[in-house]
Amino acid sequence: MNYSHIGLSPEVENVIILLLMALAVVLIVIRHRSMPPGTGRQQIRWALLGFFWSLVCIVALVIVEIASDNASTFSAAIWTTILQHLVIALLNALLMIAITISLLRYRLYDADETISRSITFGIVTLALLLIFAGAEKAIEILGEEYFGERLGAIASGTGAAIAAVMIGPLHHRVTLWAEHRFRSQLGHLRLGLPLLVADMRETATPRALANTALARIEKGVHADHGAVIIENDVLSAHGIDDKTVRAWLAKDLAPTSNFRRLYCDRTDPFFPMRVPLYADGVGLLGWLLLGPRPDGSFFSKEEREALLAIADPIARALAIAFQREKADGEWIREVGALRGMIDRLNDRLNRHFGPDTDELTHNRSVT
Q: What is the DSSP annotation of 35-89?
């Protein structure tokens, strides 16, 4: 359109481009929904992020062009022209960066975090502007009606104060919504896994509990493999064999005195993330070891906080499961000993009174 002789105005051309990009976004979203979870969906999310910011830049460009056409002074026209070029450069840069990351498949799993933060920032900013403008206008109208025109500065200050008071709860609510919408797996990990292990600790074996927790954690933070270590022994391992984990244990995982923090070693090709399974009243039960992510990126701050939060309930659940397994083992040994005594008594009765004597029952309730 820029090199044609149709004779469209720049505003109409921008509107047409905006509609075409919106159509492209709709088609990409349809494609995204039809794909299974994996690398392909993460690539599309990065591309969608680039299109989203490009649309924002195009809207800003249309506004700047309208302001440039209506500029009343030569200085204002110069500044709006400079701003147009800056917005165009930013548009191209954001779009190309997002597409490049998508094509190279690098840091794909950061897309969820970036999208969540971008949308949170945009919604909070827009909402605060609306609150400030609405409060200021309402106070000005009331001031003009009851106090004349003496509340101009007070109206602005009061509007800013109301916006400042609202920013905390508004940011909290928007952040929770964005995480639930775009990072649901992390939310399930932080809230759902403690409830799951609390239920399983009364029925499942420690190995089954560790396998379930490890599978959920790997899915939640996109780890390539992982392992659960209890007293320098491998209780559970996913995506890696026990022999490799034991060989790693023989030369790594130095003991430490601070068990309330994560230990990260980005250079470790096997387990760059190490989570101590520590709980008050239980102590250090073992370690949760997580391998690198497939795209080469490291675990985000929110993911690290979630891992530290779930370490306590997992440690408690495993400790209870071990105690229950030990108690069950002792009960089984006692029942076995009682059954042996019953068999010996039956043999003696048969020898003394003959084989027709009724044998003692093996029913545990009768015993």
A: SPSSHHHHHHHHHHHHHHHHHHHHHHHHHHHHHHHT--SHHHHHHHHHHHHHHHH
Burial of 209 (0-12, 13-18, 19+ CB in 10 A): buried
Residue 255: phi and psi, rounded to 5, are: -65, 150
CATH 3.60.40.10 assigned to domain 203-319? The reply is no
**pLDDT per residue over 249-281, tens digit each?**
888 665 566 677 888 888 888 888 899 898 888
∠149-150-152 over CA atoms, to 5°? 85
Please list the alpha-helical segments (H only) found in 147-226: 152-182, 184-187, 193-200, 206-221
Residue 136's CB: how many other CB atoms inside 10 A?
21
The percentage of the chain sitting over the pLDDT mark of 90, rounded to a whole number, equals: 5
Alpha carbon of 216 to those of 4, 270, 274: distances in Å?
Answer: 56, 19, 16
Every domain range in the chain assigned CATH 3.30.450.40: 203-319
Q: Residue 318: CA atoms inside 13 Å, Cβ hemisphere, count?
A: 31
- Which amino acid does the sequence have at 294? P
d(CA 95, CA 325): 57
State how far the Cα of 142 lies from the Cα of 134, in Å rounded to an integer: 12
Q: What is the pLDDT of residue 253?
A: 62
pLDDT in tens, 148-206: 555 555 666 676 777 777 777 877 787 777 777 767 777 778 888 888 888 888 888 88
Residues 6+ apart with CB under 8 A from 338: 367
Average pLDDT over residues 48-62: 81
Of 191, 187, 190, 210, the C-alpha closest to 200 is 210
Mean pLDDT over 317-321 rounds to 90
Task: Report the candidate in 257, 306, 308, 311 with the shortest Cα–Cα distance to residue 279.
Answer: 311
Q: Which two tokens stand for residue 348?
A: 């003696």
Q: Would you state the torsion angle of the CA atoms of residues 333, 318, 236, 230, taken in this order, to the nearest 10 degrees? A: -90
